[in-house]
């Protein structure tokens, strides 16, 4: 699964109607709603949208015939294996009726083109853990974890050592935690956050 790196826009004209797509990464339902409110144009004929957050999704045809705008936009999101993404396609009517099939192609196609042009980043399931270690082990543990792509989110010091809060890929977490145990000869105390 992937998400977008940043906001992307695309404009195209189809049979005299102008379509403007905005696509952006979103973290939750509230940020999706804020994105849609910020980019919808009240002077346009239609502001159709869809968003997906894991198994949760929503879409709106905003006055277009049912199933001709929101669902095709959602299909464009799903068709490119995207998650945590919201897409808004705004239409200014140009005087030529597109018909149901034409609307599906126009909204879905505009959304798909916008998403295809966007920079994407892989969504990686991450796990957070806390490591309490002695000063003698600290530098080696930090260097080896960094070499494995483990991010140190926080570091605090105690009288005898340090407490590291780390973020790591869930699929490589077991290897990283075994490494910490081996490097500290079992002295480091590891606790997983939920």
What are the key terms here?
single chain; 194 residues; alpha+beta; Ribosomal Protein S5, domain 2; Alpha-Beta Plaits; 2 domains; five-stranded antiparallel beta sheet; four-stranded antiparallel beta sheet; 5 helices; 11 strands; rod-shaped; Impact_N_sf
Summarize the structure in words:
It holds the Pfam family Impact_N. Belongs to the IMPACT family. The structure is a single chain. The chain has about 190 residues and is of the alpha+beta class. The chain has 2 domains: about 1-120, Impact, N-terminal domain (Ribosomal Protein S5, domain 2); about 125-190, Alpha-Beta Plaits, CATH 3.30.70.240. The protein has helices at about 30-40, 70-80, 100-115, 135-145, 175-185, and strands spanning about 1-5, 10-15, 15-25, 45-55, 55-60, 85-90, 120, 125-135, 150-155, 160-170, 190. Strand 9 (about 150-155) and strand 10 form a beta hairpin. Helix 2 packs parallel to helix 3 and helix 4 packs antiparallel against helix 5. The protein is rod-shaped.
